Amino acid sequence: MASERVPSVVVVGAGGVGVICALSLCTKGKSEVSLVVRSDYNHVEQKGYQIDSCDYGKLDSWRPHHIFKTAEDAASEGKFFDYIIVTTKNIPDGPVHSKVENIIKPMLLNNHSIDATRQSNILLIQNGIDIEKSILETFDQKEYNYTILSGIEIVGSTKIATGTIHQIGTEKIFVGAFQPDDSRAKEAAKQFVDIYLNEGQNAAEFDPRVRHSRWNKLIYNAAINTTTALIGLDVPRALQFGVDGKSTEFEIFRPAMKEIIKIAASEGIILDEASIDIFTNISRNLMFKPSMCVDREKGQLMELEVILGNPISIAKKNGVDTPILSNLYFLLVMLQGKLKEANGLIKFDEETCRIVN
Amino acid sequence: MASERVPSVVVVGAGGVGVICALSLCTKGKSEVSLVVRSDYNHVEQKGYQIDSCDYGKLDSWRPHHIFKTAEDAASEGKFFDYIIVTTKNIPDGPVHSKVENIIKPMLLNNHSIDATRQSNILLIQNGIDIEKSILETFDQKEYNYTILSGIEIVGSTKIATGTIHQIGTEKIFVGAFQPDDSRAKEAAKQFVDIYLNEGQNAAEFDPRVRHSRWNKLIYNAAINTTTALIGLDVPRALQFGVDGKSTEFEIFRPAMKEIIKIAASEGIILDEASIDIFTNISRNLMFKPSMCVDREKGQLMELEVILGNPISIAKKNGVDTPILSNLYFLLVMLQGKLKEANGLIKFDEETCRIVN
């Protein structure tokens, strides 16, 4: 990228994470920020966002530089986006239009048509493992001249009403290159930290070992996110409702976490076993419902494949035994089917007892 | 029992099973039948039952010989009950008064005080394994002079409204002695078949090997009842919503069934593996929700301990590995905790994140 040019950024997904992401960028003032708002578009266009943020205070009628109703609208403006940031849920088994490769497609193609020599950087601020693969399989990396960046975001931020964001936990983001040998991606990740970090407000760090970080986060998500989603319980209740207050921890959480550590090891990624204690204890005494549990209770599809399906595929490929994780997966697949039916994504015929295509 | 005396029977539990049980006995006309009605008492006392039965036709204002509001009321009439039949759910982790040993207590004690030399026969028409043990542990069998009979009931009967019973499936009951060496129990079971069987209407058979039959039924209940309860799905959907329509069957149902067969074998009970196919296919193409699933959806406690907890205890004692069943159990224990909290049986303090005693 030319140094004199202010990078242009588009954020797709205007939930609790996406809006704070746009706000952090705008606060820094080193980029031009577009946000794809979709369902809240009319409200935000007229009234802007109402934000109550522990990092940035109370904001009324806040807007980023540009808002768009769809990714297609953003792409049709004739603007090159140096960073295409996706903050939606990653649900490869969900509706076609919500798959990550389809979300970025209009903007990546538009960038390519504007200037094929200029580098696009796709930043996925999403859960799970192997989420970059469908992009690499869909778009030739040389032809479309892009890098893929990983964002691991820790932020207690929720859209509590239309155009209304409530952030209660300080934002911390780790950004790095999905492909460890891609030096251009590393540079882009470092530049992103530079246009994102607001000292004394949020935190942003370059992540030199993305896969390691993602597997580490998966220790929590694959064990605790999944279990609580299956039962529909916050973490403290899930722990206390076990046999003698112990079986959830010692028969599910900890063995499942160990299975993730074994799968990661089979990929050459050595995780610190201390994470098991940390993640088991992190919300033992704190009322917290992980995201998959929240999704299930809202009747929305869960990020099941990227959190559990993909790690299990890797385990199978590498010959790692995963009795607990596999059982959780095969149970959650049924729950996901129930959610799909409730959302009209599949139809079940009670006469033939079969899914109708 | 003296042959000239008509046996006196009390049925505790007036749901779909209990009312048809009383009706079968009354139709035969060889016993004096009392029914403990509890919640529907006032309605039934005034208007009797409205019954639509595939076995006995449409009945209006039907009543057995006697109705009582509680087991205590039944016991206080000064009447000796030759058969004490329990058709309630068996939930040892439920409220104290609903434990089976407490349900039968007033009548067994009353029988004992009326005539300690006369034999009481306790017939448990309930799901699960080892359900006779709490009775044997609570009441000395010689002192209280009782036998325990096992009833396995197949009947599509439901209480669809207050005092209103709808029976769509012909009743079939298998009755035998829980204790295989108890010849008095075997005689009592055979006599029961005699006072119960209405040729051409219902079916009743003496069961010479009770534990075998119960373990066989457990093949279905421990695998399919449990899984569908966990997700809240009927059996056909549970099967079809698996990965490629297969994982529920091949990764959960069939392996779980095999574990039950292994546990039974460790107890010297050799089950026919053909049951796995039979039970997997029995409701593949038939909309059906097993009882634990129905209970969960009604917000009622599930028969988790007698269907899954007890077999797993036996497996542990005998060194049988049960990865699938144990995982289902530790998940369902959390769901049972959620149901207990919703029913006010436990309290959870969100400040301390602990169950309050």
Brief write-up:
Two copies of one chain form a homodimer. The first copy, chain A, is of the alpha/beta class and 357 residues long. Chain A is built from 14 helices and twelve strands.
Provide the fold topology.
The structure is a homodimer of 357-residue chains.
Chain A: E1 8-12, H1 16-28, E2 32-36, H2 41-47, E3 49-53, E4 57-62, E5 66-68, H3 71-75, E6 83-86, H4 100-114, E7 120-125, H5 133-138, H6 141-144, E8 146-161, E9 164-177, H7 183-196, E10 203-206, H8 210-231, H9 235-240, H10 247-266, H11 274-282, H12 291-298, H13 304-318, H14 323-342, E11 347-349, E12 354-356
Parallel strand pairs in A: 1-2, 1-6, 2-5, 3-9, 6-7, 7-8, 9-10
Antiparallel strand pairs in A: 3-4, 8-9, 11-12
Helix pairs in contact in A: 8-10, 8-11, 8-12, 8-14, 10-13, 13-14
Structure description:
The structure is a homodimer of 357-residue chains. By secondary structure, chain A is of the alpha/beta class. Helices cover 46% and strands 21% of the residues of chain A. In chain A, helix 8 (210-231) crosses helix 11, helix 8 (210-231) packs across helix 12 (291-298) and helix 13 (304-318) runs antiparallel to helix 14 (323-342). Chain A starts with 7 loop residues before the first strand and ends with a strand.
Descriptive keywords:
homodimer, 357 residues, alpha/beta, N-(1-d-carboxylethyl)-l-norvaline Dehydrogenase, domain 2, two-stranded antiparallel ribbon, 21% strand, 6-PGluconate_DH-like_C_sf (chains A, B), 2-dehydropantoate 2-reductase (chains A, B), KPA_reductase (chains A, B), NAD(P)-bd_dom_sf (chains A, B)
